[in-house]
Amino acid sequence: MTIAAPQVLQLNDDITMPALGFGVFQTPPEETAASVETALSVGYRLIDTAAAYGNEREVGEGIRRSGIARDDVFVETKVWISDYGYDATLHAFDKSAGKLGVDQLDLLILHQPMPSRFDLTLDAYRALEKLLADGKVRAIGVSNFMPEHLNRLLTETSVVPAVNQIELHPYFQQRELQALHGEKGIVTQGWSPIGGITSYRDSEKRTFDDPTLIDIARRHGKSAAQVMLRWHLQQGRSAIPKSTNPARIAENFGVFDFELTTEQIEAIDALDTGVRGGPDPNSITLEAFGREIPEA
Hints:
Blueprint: E1 8-10, E2 16-18, E3 22-23, H1 29-42, E4 46-48, H2 56-66, E5 74-79, H3 86-100, E6 107-110, H4 118-133, E7 140-143, H5 147-156, E8 163-167, H6 175-184, E9 187-191, H7 211-220, H8 224-234, E10 238-239, H9 246-253, H10 262-269, H11 286-289
Helix pairs in contact: 1-2, 1-9, 2-3, 3-4, 7-8
């Protein structure tokens, strides 16, 4: 038995979002425009960036260079914690939209839950609700929110986030959080979806070297990265791989011409270690991570 992967996902506010997107985390600004232009030429139609990445302006340049109509590109960015608070977050939209060169964002999300100042997080999310009501954004969401953060947000605000973007790859699957998303109608969007974060330190076990993934890839004539992306898509998630290598950018998009079997999906599910590769969201505080986000 095989399961088809969607090319678009229906969000809870009735708009659709491409399931597979292109990320630019840690992409140097001088390489970003060309990478985005390449991704769009390959077929990507979702571009994910963030105010804290420092490359929103170049993302906008890459979109314009591509010649793809603005309405055909789903643009997603994130508000950094330094701009949390109602008025500050409203202004954060202006800064991001100005750098990107757009009048409307398709998805605007809060980058971290910041539980040490969750009052500011709640005010920031209420600003997102205002931007949504005013038509300045088409959908709103969050990133790196764990169950306790999400449950509190849901009790104190009005709009259910359309998306929660979280670390998610075969070695860290956050199943409890995914189940909560399913109950609330929130799309799970995986960052580091092919486990790139597991290769940052030489001593760490890398997803790319995993014998289970390599064997499945061999059976399909694909790469381990393609298998991981297919695993996300067949389970109804969004994934946003990143690369600056044109060949890798194209390879990561080549995941719509094969299907994993139920047994292969179960084998990948069994790889979960429960070990987070990125920072604990509870550690992200203004004192440690606050930084000024420049004006447009």
